[in-house]
Specification:
By secondary structure, the protein is of the alpha+beta class. It is built from 10 helices and 18 strands. The strands form 4 sheets. The chain has an 8-stranded mixed sheet, covered by helices on one side.
């Protein structure tokens, strides 16, 4: 079975996560998919297979060499993003992409165009897997799962390739920031690992945002509008005033690279009460702490005009894994060498987001992130090039071989 065959079978599972259920896994489809994968791993004859009640699936490929090779892990997540439906995914292979528009859905006139998505032109002549425009595809991260299992199957079929013990794990709820929360690092038993959860070919990441959420609550006072003068406090108007006090240009749509931001992700309000939901992001820890203090400062400023009106709850979510990876940079260098031997030029860059690897690194498992090959994650225009998945599989195989050497 090829990596493409595996991927096409995996996207049939609806594994969209849901942060509102307060369960692990957050949706039943993830456990159904985990059970299916467990059966596949058992048929392959892997060892130390375990699937716990929280949906964490682990397995081992035993070492086939006598050298003291490190135990290496490869990790991918079961869930797809809650941003768009992953139910009844209808993938289609576009053969030998010609650089023109791809009609995803004739009835709804949904088009994947290189004018809007110029990265398409990087894949001229390649076979692409696309959606029908009504769902996401699920390459994030079912491509990663397919690549890991395909690499393990290849190593099993080619015992002449020497490798140490390989651990693999598939976890739930990465898309809602909870993928590593119940990950048993001690049980996994790897010296270091890689998440196969990046984007385009060559991506290699060991830096990510420091992240926090901020919930700003503004309480108003509702009075009949006919007699409201000097009495009413409209919480929505106060909330609007708060919003415009934050720097206009420090938002996701105006930043790139190492630039951090404040991102308003939700507003829910009436005259009596409005709640603003923000996420705060910055690669630099000092600037990250400064951004949190600025939110608190603006809450105090709001309360100077409207006493006791505003409050804020800030929660740290994860931190930049760079500080945990830099002392063990050989794990990054190993991945770079494995990529070059697969004919891929490494593109080391910061993640403008988070990854399970960040939380795992702080739990004692250094865990950079490697490309899985997809583009335009979390939406109807998601696609993955088949050669990209093949290259990712080759990189995994090379890491295993090089570590044993």
């Amino acid at each position: 079975m090829t990596v493409t065959d595996r991927f096409l079978s995996y996207v049939a599972f609806d594994t969209q996560s849901d942060e509102l259920t307060n369960m692990t896994p957050s949706t039943p489809g993830q456990m159904i998919f985990a059970d299916y994968l467990k059966e596949q791993l058992e048929k392959m004859g892997l060892e130390e297979i375990s699937l716990d009640n929280n949906g964490y699936l682990m397995a081992s490929l035993p070492a086939n060499c006598d050298t003291k090779a490190p135990v290496i892990g490869f990790i991918a997540h079961l869930d797809t993003s809650p941003d768009m439906s992953g139910k009844h995914v209808k993938p289609r292979i576009v053969k030998n992409y010609d650089g023109k528009e791809i009609l995803l859905n004739k009835e709804e006139n949904i088009v994947l165009s290189p004018e809007e998505f110029p990265e398409l032109l990087n894949y001229l002549g390649q076979d692409l897997i696309v959606t029908d425009g009504t769902t996401l595809l699920g390459a994030d991260d079912k491509a990663g799962i397919a690549e890991i299992i395909s690499a393990v199957a290849y190593l099993q079929a080619h015992p002449e390739i020497k490798h140490g013990k390989i651990r693999i794990a598939f976890n739930p709820d990465e898309e809602i920031g909870q993928g590593a929360h119940k990950f048993d690092v001690e049980k996994f038993g790897a010296e270091f690992a890689y998440t196969m959860d990046g984007g385009a070919v060559g991506e290699l990441e060991y830096e990510n945002f420091n992240a926090a959420s901020a919930k700003v609550t503004i309480k108003g006072r509702n009075v009949h509008p006919g007699s409201a003068k000097h009495k009413m406090i409209n919480s929505m108007r106060v909330a609007t005033q708060f919003i415009v006090m934050l720097p206009r240009w420090e938002t996701p749509e105006h930043t790139e690279g190492y630039e951090g931001f404040y991102h308003l992700v939700g507003i829910e309000g009436t005259v009596e009460k409005t709640v603003l939901s923000y996420i705060i992001r910055d690669h630099d820890r000092a600037r990250f702490e400064s951004r949190k203090r600025e939110i608190e400062h603006l809450v105090r400023k709001t309360n100077m005009e409207f006493p006791g009106c505003a409050s804020v709850e800030i929660k740290d979510q994860y931190y930049n894994m760079r500080e945990k990876i830099e002392p063990v940079m050989h794990v990054v260098e190993l991945a770079e060498k494995a990529m070059r031997e697969a004919g891929v030029e490494p593109k080391v860059q910061p993640i403008r987001g988070g990854t399970d690897g960040a939380q795992l690194s702080f739990k004692g498992l250094p865990c950079p992130n490697i490309f899985a090959g997809g583009e335009n994650f979390h939406g109807r225009y998601e696609f993955v090039a088949i050669p990209s998945m093949d290259k990712a599989t080759d990189v995994i195989i090379n890491i295993c071989r090089l570590a044993a050497e």
